[in-house]
Amino acid sequence: MAQTASLDPESPASLLDLMRANDALFLLMKAGYRKAFLANPKGDVPFSGPTLYGLLSLMDDVDKSIIIQNFLVTHYQLENIPLLFYYHAALQKSGDETVYRLRPAFPVVQGEIEEFLSDKLKQEWAYCMANGCMHRVSTAENLVALNAEAVLKLARDAVERKFILSAKALAILKEEVLAPIDAVYQREFDELAKRMDLFEPLKKATPRFITDMLAGIETRELAMACVGSEDILVLLDRGMSQGRRADIRAEVAVEKKRFERGEFSVQKLLDAKRRLIALVRNLPGAEMGAEMEADTDPEKDPEAAI
Q1: Long-range contacts of range 153-156, CB-CB < 8 Å, 24 or more positions apart?
Q2: pTM assigned to the model
Q3: Distance of alpha carbon 212 from alpha carbon 36, whole angstroms
Q4: Residues spanned by CATH 1.10.220 within the chain?
């Protein structure tokens, strides 16, 4: 039998090892925890994806505190935060009068959210709740839209390190929120990366036209547009100085590494590529055709499915 040393509760190193083991075990049990915490609640609110409440239910108190204080309070006025968890149900009274009553969309326990607020913000929360959050009537449909927006922004901001969460919290947000969306963006990005025919007009354009076109895109965005399609740079060289050629190639390498490290999503690469395609399409004499329009249609938005 293998010999293992017992954990010393007074040892910081032992506690750190225990925390790491707990995080690793949590991620291995993903299939089990997802159904329990992320399943959409039954009721009048037609959720179709992960909810902010469900995600917070998976977080440790430290991560919850960071999300509530550094994300929700920062991006939403305090009076609007309850409307990420509650909605107004319309009740018909006698005659034509309609009144609205605040209803929880989740099994929210009193104090569950506000315990992470400062004393001043707790007072604001209590005032809003006592008044039924009537500063803004928010229906079940409004809650769905607001929730989807908040969930996506939370995941994007966390991945871009606008605030620091634990590795476990980041993994949850990446897998449950971003992975399904990014899979759609990745497929479109991969298809566009093969479409060198979209850049054929560059072969006929004069160096001056290419230079003028490149004035409409920043070096970093141009570099992101070329990640995965570095052959585009050869077509752009005639419109760039020798110095800018070197700079853009170095920037492409940097952005590729950043993407591989997960510092931003494939959506940013796709947006940059679409931007460059639009500039090429506007070159004098460029005729891209309806097929290109379909392949770069910004209305194809996988985030609408959240």
Answers
A1: 153/71, 153/75, 154/52, 154/55, 154/67, 154/71, 156/265
A2: 0.69
A3: 56
A4: 181-305
- Compute φ and ψ for 175, nearest 5 degrees: -75, -40
User: Cα separations (Å) of 220 from 47, 93, 131, 224, 251?
Assistant: 37, 59, 48, 6, 7
Query: What are the tens digits of pLDDT across the range 278-288?
Result: 999 988 865 54
Q: Class for domain 181-305, per CATH?
A: mainly alpha
Among the residue ranges 25-34, 226-235, 281-290, the one predicted with the least confidence is 25-34
Can you read off the two tokens belonging to residue 57? 């239910």
Chain centre distance of CA 75: 14
Q: Is the pLDDT of residue 154 over 90?
A: yes
Longest dimension (CA), the chain: 78
d(CA 273, CA 267): 10
Name the residue type at position 131.
N
Q: Residue 46's pLDDT is what?
A: 87
What is the C-alpha separation between 106 and 261, in angstroms, rounded?
35
Asked if 163 and 71 count as a contact pair (C-beta separation under 8 A), the reply is: yes
